[in-house]
Amino acid sequence: MSDAPPSASTTGPTDEEIAALDAHWRAANYLAVGQIYLMDNPLLARPLVPEDIKPRLLGHWGTSPGLNLVYTHLNRVIASRGTDALCVWGPGHGGPAVLANSWLEGSYSKTYPDVSRDAAGMALLFKQFSFPGGVPSHVAPETPGSIHEGGELGYALAHAYGAALDHPDLLVTCVIGDGEAETGPLAGSWHANKFLDPVHDGAVLPVLHLNGYKIANPTVLARLPDSELDALLRGYGHEPLYVAGDDPLTVHRAMAAAMDRAVDRIRELQDAARTGGETGRPRWPMIVLRTPKGWTGPAEVDGLPVEGTWRAHQVPLPGVRDNPEHLGQLERWLRSYRPDELFDSEGRPTDQVLACVPEGEARLGATPYANGGLLLRDLPMPALDEHAVQVDRPGTVLHEPTRVLGGLLEAVMAATADRRDFRVVGPDETASNRLDALYEATGKAWQADTLPTDEHLARDGRVMEVLSEHLCQGWLEGYLLTGRHGLFSCYEAFAHIVDSMVNQHIKWLRTSRRLPWRRPIASLNYLLTSHVWRQDHNGFSHQDPGFVDHILNKSPEVVRVYLPPDTNTLLSVADHALRSRDYVNVIVAGKQPSFDWLTLDQARAHCARGAGVWEWAGTEDGSREPDVVLACAGDVPTLEVLAAAGLLRRHLPELSVRVVNVVDMARIMPHSEHPHGMPDSEYDALFTRDKPVIFAYHGYPWLIHRLAYRRTGHAQLHVRGYKEEGTTTTPFDMVVRNDLDRYRLVMDVIDRVPGLGGRAVAVRQEMADTRTRHHDWIRAHGTDLPEVADWTWEG
């Protein structure tokens, strides 16, 4: 234990309460073991036989006793203090423990009435665990009270802080396994306490559970000397409390005292800030829990030590069905918890087991904070007309699309000032991404020291910047999953850092959509800007448009990708995304000055279609199919296609050209593969069945081929996009290097329209010569050709 003085506000548990806590903990341990091993005979009404054992033993025992201890003691804190609480269970495969506790408290049976809180329900609880047609071995969307997918190691603490933001009455406990503590994202997450506002936010109580081992190796933090570990945690800004041991009653008393001290200290810090005027950064408490891995399990198996070693990580007795000695050892293990004291003859938990369990929504498995759709309110979205730009003629006026979007976001931020349920996160790039209008409504969250040169820092700020994409993602996921709204703004190339995290969030949404008790939550919205085509100043390291490819590999019912070509389409797409539920929306838009093509009404109609013909940009007369289709997706590809269309209009006026713009990337897919996909008849009408299609795409060109490979006209599809040719250069040189420029597109048209190559040879040669002239010009002048830099639409 810590040497901090005990709080005067609590007296600690009585002997009777300690006995009740121990009974609950033993019951949870019994249920955890039963889930791993048993498919029948749940109360051991008769000696175990091989047929009682599952044919495949899957699950993880090692972390379960520690998680059961935390759950048991959180119950006491919640019940005795009336605390609103949520727990994020970080250890990857702690499913047996969390399921056991939610069944004991009754929240599991309320969610799944067939798994009743009696012997029949216990048998079903056991059998369904890690069983075909059952539930996963880890904490998952199916688990009541969960917001964190077991196995996504590294993100538990970030999720916990996200959940605590703007929930001032909420205590979020976060159990961090010592394996997880070795990950980079978790190491960065310790700094989240510098962003937690003690006035408007709730509190996070980290519980670092050190049981010594991962799957096969010792863990770093568990092997640090006590003084070094203490210095590390205090350096992170925490006041650690220590609980250690293997004697259950001693550990129960120590854990109860630590919980009381921690919660008392949290309340003191919050009261000092909320009523006492304290403005310094709090040093929040945390608990370090040291218990043996696989505590109370088999001490030895086949002559080898198990409890307290890595051998306890998964299934300590692997050969139970075929090995009579192991079967007998399992039965002795289960009976060591004295189940006849814990469950009555009908299999219901006894009054002693439930003595410290809270009721109703106070139960951890029933808290509405873990089913955020129950708390979600619609965003007060402003009218887009108030923010749209005027477009009298396409391609003549320039705006910075994300700067205009910043005004819309500022209005949303201002409208949610009292309710505090909207945040914008990003890695140090809000102003760089032209969203700094947000600072008119709120500051940047910051609890550490400030200097006179700092700008826009605020203890109650709702813009969150930290140079960790992992932490931004984790905050926002925790925020959304507990019933709020938000947006993640990021440089396009560095969104890949959270690839694994968004994978898990997409899987969470896909699964939760199939659970009627999980209410829809606000979508996870990405704004990817500072994109590949305008990273000419930062160079090759900042050029990667592949996050879109990653997202479009995922569950079609969840993922959406939008490439708005101008300011008003960006506003329309953002409005749609911020209103949506249960999606991951990826919006790619530039921040540099770019041409406006569509009025707001046109933008709304175009975005609703997702893809459509821009009749004003082409030359077809409607009497026949076009000779060629120029398609585009993305702001810079749209500019190049329109410039190419202008060149074709001037040099080859007899050519019938159709211009198609795609905003919603899923529209290219067949409807059978994605809800937004076009039926074949619609796709053929738009792109034709057999005419050449020159497609200028924002990202890697092979993505378009993958999305369209089943279409009738795929053989006529030629895609230009980014092909890993980048450096520090001029903006136009980026498209030339990747053969996406207007001159190359005209050459593609000449090469692919039947019969055009012979009669347009002079035009093709002029286009090639202009590319050569460009190459020489930028090396002499450092700027793009005047006809490129000064181009406007003349249609």
What does this structure look like?
By secondary structure, this protein is α/β, with parallel strands linked by helices. It has 3 domains: 16-360, Thiamin diphosphate (ThDP)-binding fold, Pyr/PP domains (Rossmann fold, 3-Layer(aba) Sandwich), CATH 3.40.50.970; 374-594, Rossmann fold; 611-789, Rossmann fold (3-Layer(aba) Sandwich), CATH 3.40.50.920. 36% of the residues lie in helices and 13% in strands. The chain has 26 helices and 22 strands. The chain has a 6-stranded parallel beta sheet with strand order 12-9-13-14-16-15, sandwiched between helices. β19, α19 and β20 form a beta-alpha-beta unit. α1 (15-37) packs across α10 and α6 crosses α14 (469-481). The protein is elongated, with a radius of gyration of 30 Å. Residues 1-9 have low confidence and may be disordered. Its EC number is 4.1.2.-. Residues 14-374 form the Xylulose 5-phosphate/Fructose 6-phosphate phosphoketolase N-terminal domain. It comes from Streptomyces poriferorum.
Q: Please identify the top-level CATH class of the largest domain.
A: Alpha Beta
Overall form: elongated
Strand order of the largest sheet: 12-9-13-14-16-15
Might you state the CATH topology name of the largest domain? Answer: Rossmann fold
**Number of helix segments?**
26
Structural class: alpha/beta
Largest sheet, if any?
Answer: 6 strands, parallel
Determine the CATH superfamily of the largest domain. Thiamin diphosphate (ThDP)-binding fold, Pyr/PP domains
Radius of gyration: 30 Å
What is the straight-line distance between the termini?
77 Å
Low-confidence stretches: 1-9
Q: What portion of residues belong to β-strands?
A: 5-15%
Domain tally:
3
Mean pLDDT: 95
CATH architecture of the largest domain: 3-Layer(aba) Sandwich
The helix content is 25-40%
